[in-house]
Amino acid sequence: MEEVGKLSGEPTLRYLEDVSKLTKESSTTAIRNDEDLVPIPKKDYGGDRLALQHHLFKYLWQSNFSAPVEEKLKTGATVLDFGCGTVTWLIDLSSQYPNSKFFGVDQPYLLRVSTPTIPSNVTVQYYDILSSGLPFEDETFDFVYMRFMTGEIPEKQTERIINEFLRVLKVGGYLEIMDIDTEGRNEGPITHDLVSSVKLYYKATEKNPSMISKMKSLFNSNSRLTSIVSEDEYCPVGNWYGNIGEIALINWTLLLRQMKNYIIPFLCVSDNEYKKMVNEFVEEVDVFQTHWISTRVYGRKLM
């Protein structure tokens, strides 16, 4: 397999050379500059955390994807989003690339989640995506995309899922997987305890919340993938990082509250003690200047 675009080991922090040099005082508004193509996101999207997360990472990356598929999208491509959630990514791309057709699949329980009006060039299907094969013919899609799902798939099934993606991907098409590594940087003690409990919960369900860190190796070991690229981007969390850090903190706080019932048993704390921990987390990330790393890995189908 051909591998290109090796990293030096550090994320591509596009707007500062060193994350530790930025403080709230040095940037109290948007972090980036006038060259931004993507504006800083809002702090609330009608209570939809997934929409907030979408716009947060779109801003951090200044794009919705990294694979070189934009020209194909402009002229007309067929795209699959595996684990499409509330369809935010698909709706965003469908308006930007009206000549393309977009398909999303996710678990049946998401039928209960309200979503915006689905555009005419978007089709969404809900079924058990982890125990069944994809309901598409071989070589259907020009671009297959998945994000924030690597930790939701049992680790032993990951290779099977990748091969299923490649089955429905056209020769010459691109597969891209994006996620954030649960392992934080500059974690304080409260953050460490919260993250450790998340890891224990996922381990108990045979899942790996840091699976994205293995994705490049899995791509490289697959004989049907070439031109493999891995890119990293900082995700700073906390008011210490200005507006975007505050927005990231809102996202993380909402996520911790949503996961309360899953991770409290591993922390061995009461509801009130957990609430206190989350409140302390909000303060602690500013003291330690905590950040996470998000990763995109993509490759082209060779055969």
UniProtKB/TrEMBL annotation:
SUPFAM superfamilies: S-adenosyl-L-methionine-dependent methyltransferases. Keywords: Methyltransferase, Transferase. Transmembrane segments: none annotated. One of its GO terms (molecular function) is methyltransferase activity. GO terms for biological process: methylation. Residues 79-173 form the Methyltransferase domain. This is S-adenosyl-L-methionine-dependent methyltransferase. The keyword Membrane does not apply. The keyword Transferase applies. InterPro entries: Methyltransf_25, SAM-dependent_MTases_sf. It comes from Gigaspora rosea. Pfam families: Methyltransf_25.
